[in-house]
């Protein structure tokens, strides 16, 4: 089923209605560029146009009257003058049943931008100006919140549809490449693999061999961008500056020992030096992180293995979301 973007809304303050804009830039792991809610736990907010229409009609009666209360004694709520953005939503969507979405589901906007559902509804500690003005805010009940997996530009009228496309990021760890003294050759090999497998490339970055910086980037991609896969290349050997395994272990929730050992085994079929690799693999949340050597030849020796296991591995991670992701998060927000 395909819907459309009915309105794009932004504001410089939180807790107020948002003004409609013709287009916006969605930044991966951040939200709508220039919006007050960007960078927060709920990066962007979605609301169905149908929810606004229902609230606008003003035909509902107070809930505490009961079903047996005589119709002729009911007093309908007065009609509300509402428009997109009045409830503080960033994107108003028409024609798509967003209330059926589950945490972890993905939406494809404008055929290029990918967002992942992160929260269903919210609990507000204090009424915002929207609730005070309208008497009730439907965002806690019918609002959907998402992280930006792959950013880009959106405009009113763009299509919105569910997608099963997986997302991946490629990180190259190399002091020389980061300084521009050498060309990154191994990273593009992994980028080509991501494209070949039909995954959306959420990010490709070349970083120095700095453990803290590498860990921070992995956390950002896994937690803020909700990517399915992070492939790293470089920094896995015995040199003092090779710190990618340590950076990875610092962010993993659990290790996937078999993947790292299988990659080493593929290398050992070609050279005994493969046993010098300290690469690790594992999970942070629902993101799979795999260290690969910095040698293009070593990566190419593992490509057949990666082609074979990655689609199935990510399917397993995604299926867990489908099984348990329907529960609404009742996180507290002031």
Describe this structure as you would to a colleague:
There is one protein chain. The two termini are 35 Å apart. The strands form four sheets. Strands 1-6-5-10-8-7-12 form a seven-stranded mixed beta barrel. Strands 14-13-15-18-17-16 form a six-stranded mixed beta sheet, with helices on both faces. It has a three-stranded antiparallel beta sheet with strand order 4-3-11, with no helix packed on it. The chain is an alpha+beta fold. The model is unreliable at 59-65 and 321-334 (pLDDT under 50). The protein has nine helices and 19 strands. It is elongated. Strand 1 (3-10) and strand 2 form a beta hairpin.
Percent range of helical residues: 25-40%
- The helix/strand class is alpha+beta
Task: Tell me the β content.
Answer: 25-35%
Q: What's the gyration radius in Å?
A: 23 Å
Low-confidence stretches: 59-65, 321-334
Shape: elongated
Report on the biggest sheet.
Answer: 7 strands, mixed, barrel
- Order of strands, main sheet, comes to 1-6-5-10-8-7-12
Helical region count? Answer: 9
Indicate the mean pLDDT: 87
**SSE run:** EEEEEHEEEEHHEEEEHHEHEHEHEEHE
Terminal Cα span: 35 Å
Tally of strands: 19
């Amino acid at each position: 089923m395909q819907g459309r973007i009915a309105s794009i809304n932004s504001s410089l303050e939180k807790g107020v209605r948002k003004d409609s804009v013709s287009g916006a830039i969605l930044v991966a792991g951040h939200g709508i560029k220039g919006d007050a809610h960007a960078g927060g736990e709920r990066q962007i907010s979605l609301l169905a146009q149908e929810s606004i229409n229902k609230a606008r009609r003003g035909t509902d009666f107070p809930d505490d009257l009961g079903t047996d209360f005589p119709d002729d004694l009911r007093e309908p709520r007065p009609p509300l003058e509402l428009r997109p953005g009045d409830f503080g939503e960033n994107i108003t969507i028409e024609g798509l049943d967003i209330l059926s979405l589950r945490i972890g589901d993905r939406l494809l906007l404008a055929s290029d931008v990918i967002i992942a559902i992160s929260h269903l509804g919210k609990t507000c500690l204090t009424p915002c100006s929207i609730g005070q003005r309208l008497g009730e805010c439907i965002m806690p009940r019918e609002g959907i919140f998402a992280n930006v997996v792959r950013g880009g530009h959106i405009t009113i009228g763009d299509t919105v549809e569910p997608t099963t496309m997986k997302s991946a990021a490629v990180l190259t760890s190399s002091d020389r490449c980061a300084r521009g003294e050498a060309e990154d050759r191994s990273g593009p090999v992994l980028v080509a693999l991501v494209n070949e497998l039909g995954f959306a490339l959420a990010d490709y970055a070349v970083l120095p061999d700095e453990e803290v910086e590498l860990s921070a980037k992995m956390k950002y991609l896994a937690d803020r961008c909700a990517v399915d896969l992070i492939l790293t290349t470089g920094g896995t050997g015995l040199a003092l500056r090779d710190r990618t395994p340590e950076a990875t272990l610092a962010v993993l929730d659990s290790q996937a020992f078999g993947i790292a050992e299988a990659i080493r085994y593929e290398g050992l079929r070609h050279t005994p030096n493969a046993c010098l690799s300290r690469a690790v693999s594992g999970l942070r949340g629902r993101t799979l992180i795999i260290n690969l050597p910095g040698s293009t030849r070593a990566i190419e020796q593992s490509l057949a293995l990666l082609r074979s296991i990655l689609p199935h591995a990510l399917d397993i991670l995604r299926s867990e979301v489908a099984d348990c992701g329907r529960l609404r998060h009742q996180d507290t927000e002031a």
